[in-house]
Amino acid sequence: MHPIRHWELFSAKELELANLYICILDTKINSVLQFCHSTLGGGHHGSTRTARKVLDCSLYWPTIFIGVYQFVSTYDKCQKDGVAMNRRHEMPQQPILFCEVFDVWGIDFMGPFPVSNGYSYILLAVDYVSKWAEAIATKTNDAKVVVDFLKSNNFCRFGVPKELISDQGSHFCNRAMTSLLHKYGVVHRVATAYHPQTNSQVEVFNREIKKTLQKMTNPSRKD
């Protein structure tokens, strides 16, 4: 039996449309890596492409990138086949940056929109690895809203991230935010006006949410 079938609770198309990933058990990780790296379809590629294959199968686990790197770098056949390569043929060595699920979040405000039930803004946060998005409607776009959102919604549900990316707005760059991020050891990366694409994940979701809202609201735009 095809090994991946054990964890396919939904069809690949359904998982893709729903943006769902199945978190597999530790006991299944090795067989998944064997399939995605060592079989004929795996191709014995490097850690990045192997990890991509795992994610394309809608599978993941919290330390997927570290696990894939360790598996590929210690796989005997790949190491033996590559033993003849000398330093003249090697690519320049660069430190490997491990970024796991919920390690890096982008955050941004949308609005102001026409007031509905007292709300006129949407605060959106997107995880850069899983593309998981969290959004809430807010009445204002001030620092207190952001701090409360991070503490009560993100930090307690997904854990404290390593980095937070935002624009230069005063609701993100202020004393309260600096104090919060310093307390939890979170690095704050600010997208400049000359390079707003730094926070690209949030910008993409902003556009998608705006399209969805336009399709769902009445022409009066009051609901």
Automatic annotation (TrEMBL):
Top-level division of the source organism's lineage: Eukaryota
GO molecular function, one term: nucleic acid binding
Domain Integrase catalytic, residue spans: 91-223
Entries under InterPro entries matching the protein: Gypsy_RT_Integrase-like (IPR052160), Integrase_cat-core (IPR001584), RNaseH-like_sf (IPR012337), RNaseH_sf (IPR036397)
SUPFAM superfamilies cross-referenced by the UniProt entry: Ribonuclease H-like
GO terms classed as biological process: DNA integration
Name this polypeptide is given: Gag-pol
Biological source species: Mucuna pruriens (Velvet bean)
Lineage: Eukaryota, Viridiplantae, Streptophyta, Embryophyta, Tracheophyta
